[in-house]
Amino acid sequence: MPELPEVETVRRGLEPALVGRRIKSVRLNRPDLRFPFPAQLAETVTGKRVTALRRRAKYILIELESGHALLVHLGMTGRFTVWPPDGAARNLGEFYYVEQAGHAGDGAHDHVVIDLDDGARVVYTDPRRFGFMDLVEPDGADHNRFLVGLGVEPLGNELHADFLGTALAGRRSPLKAALLDQRIIAGLGNIYVCEALYRAGLSPKRLSGSIVRKRGPSPRIEPLVHAIRSVIAEAIEAGGSTLRDYAHTDGSAGDFQQRFDVYDREGEACRTPGCTSRIRRIVQSGRSSFYCPTCQR
DNA sequence: CGGGACTCCTGCCAGC
DNA sequence: TGCTGGCAGGAGTCCC
Asked: Which residue in A58, A121, A220, A265 is the catalytic one?
């Protein structure tokens, strides 16, 4: 899936097409994605004006004048395409394979088709169907099953050394698992956790609690916080990463992946000046972790 | 409760 | 060229 920087890139791309527009109609081409669509989805959304597009962690929230919001998670392969009134498609997250031209909402994996009052069409496409949608009731963000329990935003003020130290203290899981845990920091995924741990010089295998001192300051926490912030901020700045099947808002490639120091670089040279080690790949709880065995301890 | 394995689904890619 | 197995950015659920 797109991680937070990719979701933010999609949000920014969708914003000018949707905000201020009224939704004329919604077509669901199947009853479910990962989960069934809410029964009231179409009738709740139809006829409403879009007031804002927001992001929380890896969720996109399409806010409506009624106070409801359509919550969208892109899963691993979800994307939006905007078809303006003039017909030329604009891709908001693109796959590496090419769909047949002219399928504005009728492609094999086009699951949701939203028509707007200006004639534009917004299509949600998701081959793997790991994505999902939900309705958030007015003032219901604190109760929504997907939003409740989410941790802090990596770029928000709530992520600081005291917070992270408290969250990691006593944890017996590897650091990698803790940083992927959306209940602590919401929005980090496999790629950026690997990159942040490299920048912080911390091994993904190290136990979470081991970087927290029981008394006094824990000098390894602040560099980790900084590493998380910097890698996420830079990735957003670059327009996200184009992995095997994801691209930039306007169809061009996001280029942060060219700056990966460890992710998907197994066997390649560590980029730390003077280090002669090669990047290793291990599997932790079913996911690949990439790291430098010399620079990350 | 914390932690880990498993699962959903489709498609690509390396290897034979 | 064609088939097979392994792998993929997520996260809910189940089990210990």
From this structure: A58
Residue lying closest to nucleotide C10, CA to C1': A75
Instruction: Please give the average per-residue pLDDT across A14-20, as a whole number.
Output: 94
Residue A23 main-chain phi, psi, to 5 deg: -85, 115
| C-alpha span between A13 and A8 (Å, rounded) | 9
User: Domains of chain A (ranges plus CATH)?
Assistant: 4-136 (3.20.190.10), 161-291 (1.10.8.50)
Q: Give yes or no for residue A83 having a pLDDT over 50.
A: yes
Taking only the tens place, the pLDDT of each residue in A86-123 is 756 666 654 322 333 455 888 888 999 999 999 999 99
Footprint of strand C on the protein (CB under 7 A): A 1-3, 6, 34, 57-58, 73, 75-76, 128, 130, 146, 180, 182, 189-191, 241-246, 286-288
Q: CA A179, A185, A191: angle at the middle one, nearest 5?
A: 50
